[in-house]
Fold Fumarylacetoacetate hydrolase family protein.
Amino acid sequence: MRIANVGGRLHLQERDVLIDVAETSEGRFSSDPQAVYARWAEFRDWAATRPGPASLPATPVGVGAPVPRPRQCLAVGLNYADHAQESGLELPEEPFVFPKFSSCIADPGSPLVLPNSTIDWEVELVVVIGAVARDVPEAVAWDHVAGLTIGQDISDRTLQFAGPAPQQFGLAKSLRGFGPLGPWLVTPDELADPDDLEITCLLNGEVVQQSSTKHLIFDVRRVVSYLSRYLTLHPGDVIFTGTPSGVGFGRDPQVYLRPGDELLSRIEGLGELRTAVRGNE
């Protein structure tokens, strides 16, 4: 199953077309894309009676974030060994978790307005929760996942490392527009192997990050299970799972986003997320 937020309304892909869920279900389900996660199991069963999707189409005009207002937005740092290495940090023994405040969520194609000259990119696989998760064993963690989408964990490196200790991860990654998300939410069954997806980021057409999610230190099962030990995960919550090497901060010399740049984030089976960069005018 593939869903999208088009013009602020929930749509489901049937074969090569998108249908309006509220209209097609005759009001059984809300048009609000966020509302569907609270009834995910019921919606999934209803969608199973509809014709399945064909190939992944182009990004629809007017597409919005598939999870526009998550209750919780969490992120895992240093979750690829090569990114930890380029950051000059040791591999974590447990998932390194920080909040990415939900007000940062942005639609695909929304311009990223730069607040300063040290703004960095981080392409990430994003997990969307589909069922309440509390003390979930790893073996059944995927059962609590609604689907996957693409995210950019945009980061203000100056703010991130401000102060006597680098304690501003959450704030530095949560400025307005710092969480572009989408364009599709794809259920795991649509993917040949949801634990092994090619992940790529291009800056102005040049590949700057390229890896596979099979290289996650803590995979989706581990992350969901780990978080659910300490938190209650709710339907519609999102989890940014980490970025591979190739970020601007880790380069020599360092490279940061500039007005006029364009980021293109790709994950196998999930489509493309475009982010145009603008100056703070």
